[in-house]
Every structure is written in C-alpha cells, then in structure tokens.
Amino acid sequence: MAKREKKPVHKVVMTEGKRQIIQQLLQEYDIETAEDIHDALKDLLGGTIKEMMEAEMDDYRNGYKEKTVNSSYGSMRIDVPQDRKSTFEPKVLKKRQKDISDIDQKIISMYAKGMTTRQISDTLMDIYGFEASEGFISDVTDKILHPILYIDAIHYSVRDNGIIRKMAAYVILGISCEGKKDVLTIEVGDNESAKYWLAVLNSLKNRGVKDILIISADGLTGIREAIQTAFPKTEYQRCIVHQVRNTLKYVSDKDRKAFANDLKTIYNAPNEEQGRANRDRITEKWSEKYPNAMKRWERDWDVITPIFKFSANVRTVIYTTNAIESLNATYRKLNRQRSVFPSAQALLKALYLATFEATKKWSMTIRNWGQVYGELSIMYEDRLPE
In terms of domains, do 135 and 150 share one? Predict the structure, then answer.
C-alpha cells in the first residue's frame, strides 16, 4: 500500500518588509479578529485584480469601448478597456454580459451601512474599475424610501480604554413602500441627546431620505426635538410595547396580567377621547397600590395619541414590535456568544454580520400591507408614490 504523501507545511518567514505591510493592514482595516483579516484580504484582492488588469493591458490597450448594461433599476453606460487582439477577458464584467443586477444588491448593502452616494460610487470604482454616477446610485437607493421607521436599542458590554462599559446599539428599521422590512442604520453610542439624534437623522437625509411619515421609538433622550428639526412633518409615535413594559416594571407579578389587560383598553380605544377616559379610569383604579405606574401615560400622552386616528390594521403595524423582535433575537445571541466586546468597532462589525444573516430570511410583506398603504396614502396625501 502506497504511503500517503505529506503536504508540505508552509513556514512563515518574517521580514521587515512583511512587518511593515502587516502594520499598514492593521491600521488601514482596524483588524481585531481573524474574520477581519479575511475581510481585509477580500478587499485587497478586489483592488489588486483591478491594478493587475490595467497593468496587463498597458502594452496592448487600444482605447475604450462604451457599453450599456442593464440592472434591475435601469441602464447605465460604462467604458470597457479594449486590446488590439480582442483577447482580453475582464472577469468582473464579461464581454457579452449585459446584466449587472448583482451590483445593485451591493449598492443597497453599502447604502444600508450608511455610505453616501459619492462613497458608494467611489467604492464601485475601486472594486470594479468603473464609475457609476451619483444619479444612478440615487435611482437605485430611491427604492429604499420608508413610510414607517422604528428605532430600538440593545445594550452590550464594551471595553473602552481598559474599562468595561455598557453601550447601546441603536437599530433603525424601516418598512418600505412595498411593505418589506429593511435595516437602514446601526449606530453604537452611549450619549443620547437631541444633538446625537439630529446627527443620526441628518445622516439619513444626506443619504437621500427626503421624507418619513412616522417614527416609532421609545422615550430616547432628545429624539422628539431631533425629529422636529430634521423631519418637521414626521409624526413621532411613542412605542406602545415599550410604554407597556415600562409601566409593568412597577407592578407585582400577581397583578401584571390584570394591569396589562387594562392598558389594552387605552391603545385599543376607538378614539383619543375614549382612550383618555380609559387612562384616567386605570390611573384611579391602580394609583393607590402603584402610584408611579401611570405617570408616563399622562406625561407622554401627546406622543401616544397619533395612533388613534388610524384603523386597527395600521395601528398594529405602528405599535407592535413584530417587525423588529426577530432581529433583536439575533442581536441578543451576540450577548450570549461574547460577554464583552473589545471595542465599539468590533461590536459594530458583529452587528452588521448578524444583520446580513438575519435579513436573508426576510421575503414576506407586512400583513395587510395593501390596506395599510392605502390608508397612509390618504392620511398623508401627496407624500407617498402612487
């Protein structure tokens, strides 16, 4: 029986040149894990292939040929380098390839990461060797307009200058005009304020978001003022689920079910007047036993009431957290997998990877979305595409 030939083991020999390259990689890509190294090498490979392709054609280049290609968002023209013998076979865009729909998805992903149209165009230039105009990018990203946005937070332990601190990961999730869920932004921070949220909302504006009908969020510090400044026509709806949870914190286990059922009579009331009457009745019923439980409902009433003008179908979309709970379940797994993240950047990378995995399963539209969209179109006339 023939002996199995052993594969040669590669022995790493370090040189000063290699050390300098590694140091540059660590600085350029903020490498902290083996996965980061993998991502950095993929990025470098894309740029290297482009440089090699151009170098390969230096002696044979015969100008450029304009080519029109199609995407799921429209057509675009690019300049393809030509060689005299017509033997050059580009790998990214093959000679007879007319469709680049896969690039659309990359644009959407980059947009979701918070990149501007100019940055996306530059990135496509770096990786693929051709330039997409900002107008083309805007046409692609116009499909990411969302009438309803949710802002939610999950807290993680993060090491910051040697000290372990709790930091919040804020996720902005939108429902598109087609009734599909999409993650627009993930922010990691610990300094909630009107200034902070204004910067977050302005980043959405800078990425082309012209209008938002409703933003549903918990009582984040400064969020109301930031919405009024960045999107003055947008309605801020206090998240009812968070409102209920915060109320029940003051209630003992034996009374929670009864108290929760009473709260339902507020946000399920047919109109604001009945909702207020039910609120006052519940406050009177439970105030002696739980004097602090209903204070939030009185203080925040003006941002609870927007739901009363909608039908049950629209209310359900606005105040339930079904759209974001499945995503949060994925994010909570990160806490179980890693008790402390080495940096905020490491946490952000882990969240992005988890998001991409979670959103692969999102294909269904929101229940009764046709009715919901029709009602929103009437309520917010001329602000939604027909």
Answer: no
Give dist(CA 313, CA 320) in Å, integer: 11
Res. 2 pLDDT band, cuts 50 70 90: low
pLDDT of residue 100: 58
- CA end-to-end distance (rounded Å), the chain: 75
Cβ atoms within 10 A of the Cβ of 345, count? 14
| 200-251 tens-digit pLDDT | 898 888 777 888 999 998 888 889 999 999 999 999 999 898 899 999 999 9
Nearest to 171 by CA among 149, 159, 186: 186
Cα 252 to Cα 256: distance, rounded to the nearest angstrom: 6
Residue 364 domain boundaries: 144-379
Alpha carbon of residue 134 to chain centroid: 21
Angle between helices 134-141 and 117-128 (to 10 degrees): 110
Tell me, yes or no, whether 290 lies in a domain: yes
In angstroms, what is the C-alpha Rg of the chain?
A: 26
Alpha carbon distances (Å) from 21 to 29, 34, 182, 203: 12, 17, 38, 34
Q: Which tens digit of pLDDT belongs to each residue from 148-204?
A: 999 888 888 888 888 898 888 888 888 888 888 888 888 887 667 888 889 889 888
DSSP state of 299: H
Domain boundary among 143, 168, 184: 143
Residues 109 and 203 both lie in one domain? no
114 and 251 together in one domain: no
Element of type H or E holding 237: strand 235-238
Domain boundary among 111, 143, 175: 143
What mean pLDDT do residues 15-22 have? 56
The H-or-E segment that residue 67 falls in is strand 61-71
Which spans in 160-193 are helix H? none
- Average of per-residue pLDDT values in the chain: 75
Both 120 and 79 in one domain: the answer is yes
Give backbone dihedrals phi and psi of 90, rounded to 5 degrees, phi first: -65, 140
Task: Count up the domains in the chain and report the number.
Answer: 2
| CA 47 from centroid of its chain's CA atoms | 26
